């Protein structure tokens, strides 16, 4: 199988099971000040987010994908910790929770995914890793608030 096709299948599989979130340094405070952890604001997640692009890095290569490659992918986060993932394959409901820059989704089949994220008023970034055939791929997805 060609590497592009293999990576695309990894990304599609990961997108279907993971809400995933950004290459953010983590949950720690500024060394010069004792302000406590600097974490994304959970309330900024509330709303509907549409994927604009995804980057996959692994095996010494970088691949860029857009909605034209992957289909439309939308996540809706509701107040109270419920949400919906919508792709060309269908819709799946989930419960969500945040612990600093980690987003955990629990789906109806009780499977759980935890990803790293960063969010502003208009952009959501999700990062996670997938492994295929012994190669680790770093996946970053970019979303715009609708």
Could you explain the architecture of this structure?
- There is one protein chain.
- This protein is mainly β and 146 residues long.
- It has a single domain, classed as Lipocalin.
- It has helices spanning 3-17, 67-70, and strands at residues 47-58, 61-65, 74-77, 82-87, 90-99, 102-107, 112-119, 123-132, 135-145.
SSE arrangement:
Blueprint: H1 3-17, E1 47-58, E2 61-65, H2 67-70, E3 74-77, E4 82-87, E5 90-99, E6 102-107, E7 112-119, E8 123-132, E9 135-145
Antiparallel strand pairs: 1-2, 1-3, 1-9, 3-4, 4-5, 5-6, 6-7, 7-8, 8-9
Strand order of the largest sheet: 1-3-4-5-6-7-8-9
Radius of gyration: 15 Å
Give the topology string: H per helix, E per strand.
Answer: HEEHEEEEEEE
The major β-sheet equals: 8 strands, antiparallel, barrel
Strand content: over 45%
CATH architecture: Beta Barrel
- Structural class, by secondary structure, is mainly beta
Q: Let me know the number of strands.
A: 9
CATH topology: Lipocalin
In CATH's first tier, which class applies? Mainly Beta
Query: Uncertain regions: pLDDT < 50 for 5+ in a row?
Result: 1-36
Instruction: Assign a percent range to the helix content.
Output: 10-25%
Inertia-based shape: globular
């Amino acid at each position: 199988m060609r590497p592009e096709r293999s990576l695309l299948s990894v990304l599609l599989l990961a997108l279907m099971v993971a809400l995933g979130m950004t290459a953010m340094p983590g949950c720690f405070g500024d060394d010069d000040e004792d302000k406590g952890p600097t974490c994304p604001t959970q309330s900024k997640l509330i709303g509907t987010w549409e994927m604009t692009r995804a980057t996959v890095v692994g095996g010494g290569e970088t691949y860029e994908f857009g909605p034209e490659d992957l289909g439309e992918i939308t996540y809706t986060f509701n107040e109270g910790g419920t949400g919906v993932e919508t792709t060309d394959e269908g819709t799946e409901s989930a419960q969500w929770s945040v612990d600093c820059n980690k987003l955990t989704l629990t789906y109806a089949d009780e499977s759980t995914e935890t990803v790293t994220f960063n969010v502003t008023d208009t952009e959501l970034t999700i990062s996670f890793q997938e492994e295929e055939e012994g190669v680790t791929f770093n996946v970053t997805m970019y979303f715009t608030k609708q």
